[in-house]
Write a sequence for this structure.
């Protein structure tokens, strides 16, 4: 990562010299938030939406952020310009801060980090052919916030790879909430549904709900609704819109990718 800079503690520093104090709660207790998005041709994608969510996550975890949305935007744009990477990722993080007893949340000592690295988007074969979801009974803590707690997701990464699956679908007492790093949608009788509560409101999800010409409904639903769906797809910053043709051993709609899924995918990927 030579010649790459990171923003930390109010200044740009070389990536290999960006450090956190060992007493920071993000290290001691895993207490912190982040957001992640892509920059194409050095232009951040949906940055305003991501920063809104970042500010919401900070408020939910009572983290002190001494920057406005406009100042965060300037910091990110200046870092992208400094690094001069055509296509990159941006990860913005806010830590719990240095704690005097490695436990108590400090009201004014959070650290803001912005990491900007090269990133070339490579869609998996499932993006074209349709992918598989495997299920797991799990409900994230504070699901509306984008915390750094990905323990369950990382633990399942080996099972995910062994199953050659696209994502893990989390089920809360058979209620569909979200995937480990994606939102989930299904289509039934020309209506498009996505869960309404107890999940992270993804930015790609937000953009899809704004599309004109579709009957979109935010509604909590159960696993049987997915299995009976005409179409299923998942969405995320890196996956865009990825069709789902199988959940565990259950084939969705005879394994065919639907017209609505393909149409929405085309719109999102063109932006």
């Amino acid at each position: 990562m030579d010649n790459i800079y990171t923003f930390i503690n109010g200044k740009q520093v070389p990536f290999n010299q960006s450090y956190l104090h060992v007493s920071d709660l993000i290290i001691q207790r895993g207490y912190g938030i982040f957001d992640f998005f892509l920059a194409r041709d050095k232009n951040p994608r949906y940055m305003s939406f991501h920063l809104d969510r970042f500010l919401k996550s900070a408020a939910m975890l009572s983290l002190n952020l001494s920057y406005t949305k406009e100042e965060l935007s300037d910091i990110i744009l200046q870092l992208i310009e400094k690094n001069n990477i055509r296509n990159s990722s941006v990860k913005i993080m806010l830590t719990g801060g240095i704690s005097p007893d490695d436990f108590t949340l400090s009201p004014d000592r959070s650290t803001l980090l912005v990491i900007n690295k090269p990133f070339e988007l490579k869609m998996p074969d499932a993006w074209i052919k349709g992918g598989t979801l495997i299920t797991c009974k799990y409900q994230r803590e504070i699901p509306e916030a984008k915390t750094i707690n990905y323990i369950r997701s990382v633990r399942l990464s080996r099972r995910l790879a062994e199953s050659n699956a696209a994502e893990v679908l989390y089920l809360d007492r058979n209620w569909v909430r979200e995937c480990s790093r994606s939102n989930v949608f299904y289509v039934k009788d020309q209506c498009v549904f996505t869960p309404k509560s107890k999940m992270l409101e993804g930015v790609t999800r937000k953009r899809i709900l704004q599309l004109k010409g579709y009957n979109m409904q935010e509604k909590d639903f159960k696993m049987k609704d997915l299995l009976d769906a005409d179409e299923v797809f998942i969405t995320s910053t890196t996956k865009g819109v990825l069709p789902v043709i199988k959940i565990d051993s259950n084939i969705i709609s005879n394994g065919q990718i639907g017209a609505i899924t393909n149409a929405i995918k085309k719109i999102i990927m063109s932006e």
In short: The two ends are 29 Å apart (CA to CA). DSSP finds nine helices and 15 strands in the chain. The longest strand covers residues 32-40. The chain has two domains: 5-118, 126-270.
